[in-house]
Structure formats: C-alpha cells, structure tokens
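Researcher: Next sequence.
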Amino acid sequence: MENIKTEIAILQEISSAVVHERNIQKLMEQVLEIISRKMGMVCAALTLRHGDIFEIDASFGLDHAAKKRGRYELGEGITGQVAATGIPCLVPNVLKDKRFLSRTKKPDPGQCTAFLCVPITHHERVVGTLSIECENNPGTNLESYLSLLEIVGNLMADVAATRAKEHEEREQLLATNQRLREVIQLTNPGKLVGNCRSMQQVYRLIRQVAPTNATVLIRGSSGTGKELVAQAIRQLSNRADKPMVTLNCAAIPEELVESEFFGHEKGAFTGASERRIGRAEAADGGTIFLDEIGDLSLTSQVKLLRFIQERTFSRVGSNKEIQSDVRIIAATSRNLEKLMEEGKFREDLYYRLNIFPIYIPDLSKHRCDIILLAEHFIEKYNLRYNTSIKGISPPAVNLLMAYHWPGNIRELENCIERAVLTATDDTIHSYNLPPSLQTEISSTLHELPQGTKDFKTLVESFERELLMDALKRHKGNMSAAARELSLSPRMIHYKINHLGISAKWYTEKKEE
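Model: Next structure:
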C-alpha cells in the first residue's frame, strides 16, 4: 500500500513538472531528481536518440566521465557499463522495445543493486531510454519499480521526441549557417563589394594565394581598392591574427624611407633622440603592405630588394642584423614595365615582387557593380550621419551608369557621401550628385527640385521619371511599360523620343 502511495506521489509530481516546465533540459533533470529522491535511487540517466547515436541528455548521480562514456551508436551490441556504480546506458533488449532488469552484487558483503532500464517510445519508435540503479534490498519490489519507470517513460515520450527534433533542427540550422558563411566568404572575401565576372576572378586569385606566404603584387588604378584586396588576403591567411603594417611609399620623403621601413638607433642622425622600431620589425610574424611601391627611388629599391631576398635588415645607425618573418604584399598604380624601360624601376626588384600579380579592374570595366557599390556606400553613410536614405532615383541611376569614373570606386564613394548629405528626402536624386556627373549623355535626364522651374519643365520632369520607372521595371520593354501607364504604343514612342529617353538603357545586357 505504501509503495502505491509513493508511486502516485511520484507520478503527480512528474505530471506537474511536465505541465509547468517549458525548458526541456531542465524538465528532464527535474524528472530524474524526483525519481531518485522519492525512490532512493543511487543514480539515474535519460538518453535520447540523435540520428543513430544515443547520448545521455540528463542524469542524476553520474560524474562527468560517466556521462561522456554514455554515447553509443546503433548496432554496437552494447553491454558495457558507463558509470562507476555500474549503470549501463543502453542494452540491446531496450533498443528492441523491451524492458530490462539486472541484479548485480557489490564488492561489499551483503550489498546488492539492481539496474532497471525501459525504452522511451514515440510513434512506435524508440527515441530514448530511462534507466536507474537502486539498492536491491530484501522486500524491494523491482517489478513495481520497472512498471513505474514504463509509465514515466510514456509521460516523457513527447518531451523526448521534442528534444530530439530540436537537436535535429539545430544541427540543420548550424549546417545551413555554415554553408551561407562559406558562400559569403567565397563571393566577397574581406570587405570587397562586387559580383561581376572580373571581380569574381579577383576573388579566385585572392583565395588561391591567401593560404600561402607568397609575395603578392596588386596592380590597378588609383581608387580601385588595392588596400582592401591586401586586407582580404591577410584575413584569409594563417597570419590573420598577426599585425598588418602599411607603408605608403609615395607619402614618405626619400631620406626617411629607410628609417620608416627599418627603424633607427638613437643618434643615428640629427633628430634621432631615441631608438625607433621600423615597419619591417613591427610586422614580424604578420604582413607588411607596401602601397605605391612604384614611387620608390632607386636607392630605396636597392635596400628593399635585400630585405625581400633575405628577410633581414639593419636599423639605421646599427650593424646588427635583424630577422623578420613577414609576408610582403605590394601595390602600385604605376606602369612598372614602362618605368623599367625608363630606368626608374629595378628589374630584379620587379621580378621579386611580381611572383603572384593580381590586377584590379577600373570601375568603368565592371559597371554592373556601380549600383551595388552605391547602395553599400549609402548604408555606410546612413550609419555615419544618422540619415535614412532608402534608394536612388532612376535619373540618378542613369547619371551614375553614364559617367566614366576616372577616380574609380573612391570617386563613387565621395559622390554618394555628398549625395547622402545633400538629400532632402529618403531618395538620392540626380540633383544631389556633383556637377561632374552631368555629362552630355545624361544632361537630358536631370531632375529638378520643386519650385525652381516653370510648370511645363516640372511636368516634363515628372513624366520623364514615370516613363523611366516603368521602363526599368519592365527591362526596357516599351509595350509592357505602355500597358502599365495606359498609353498607346504611338504615345509612349512619342514621349520617349520627346523627353530624350532610350529604352536600351534598361534592356538587360550580358556582362562584358
């Protein structure tokens, strides 16, 4: 009678916990604690199925080592024990949806324990096990305990299945997240922006050379993002956690290049009041980026050549040789081949640097990235200036696409920064862009702020924007644009010709 009251109390307490506890992990631990407290168990374990593997998800009275050993794969024929007390986590009979009871004797005379294990079944599938170890004293009704465990196992079936499903969903989310990270990393290493074919080739080269220690020479016009490429190479290399030191060779006077690069000792020259560490020494273990290396004088080139060959140098005013383990990345906007012909750049230095060249295309060579870059800069300067620009008007898009961008991405960034600052609403209009973009090709595409022109001009500006919006949505299809605006084919042709619009601007073009 007493056993029945105890079992009813256990079931009531477990049922209350199942109803009120939302955290599945805490619920499983709470259920085991109730069983152990009410029944005087030595230890207990609840295992759940994750794929073909059973692992202890909750336990009571087991140490860390015992939990770690309680991990088995289906088909192993498990008979081993997972705890110092002798509690097996799984047995073949339980996996076959059968209860299991085993009596074992302890080393101490007169002591005997019993191991009880029942399956947790959900939709006729074993999703876990519930096992306990208790003292097997005379008069202990083990069959009653086993029946109670089966009832508790049935109560926990939905909980166990939910837990297993959460684990599976989490694994799927982690796998999806990893794939997305790989795609992002694969497409845009570092902070580079652009998806056109020429930039994809640059990304491939970056990924190929980054894991190595090879010297890289980045070629490209001013403003194309050579330093970003250097940073991307460093981020994907095994030196990512080491320093990256930059030296702009064009910005340093010739007489100070050696001191900047290699450092100097105290008193090495007038004004050298203390020892100074150079860039080569500061970058030890990491990466040194030599920007605009084509501007170095021949004298400086000789000293740099020796460092590139030997990775050793001496501070100005010292004879001591210093070793520096650095990776060298150089960049230039100059035509090094022409400089060599003119005797202004050493051939031996050129061949030392030109081990793995990467050519960055001018912005005019990958126009399909202009709007993508512009949107990136809008987001950047929205954060900086606390603005809320949401887009670019079609006429402004036309101006951006028609311009030849001699200053490349740096000029585009400056234009967008100016436009963000001068915009009066949430859209960048053509009149927010600098005058240099008002080319002859795009002069007919201008927008006008309200109140600055006569009625006819404002109406034509509005009509122009409506037509260009429709053509953009329909990718240059004039018939579809006419249907959207309820215009006849003759009328839309007349308006387009009159307002200086070309449907070809919006026709999808294959990338150059």
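Model: The longest helix spans residues 157-187. The chain has a mean pLDDT of 78.
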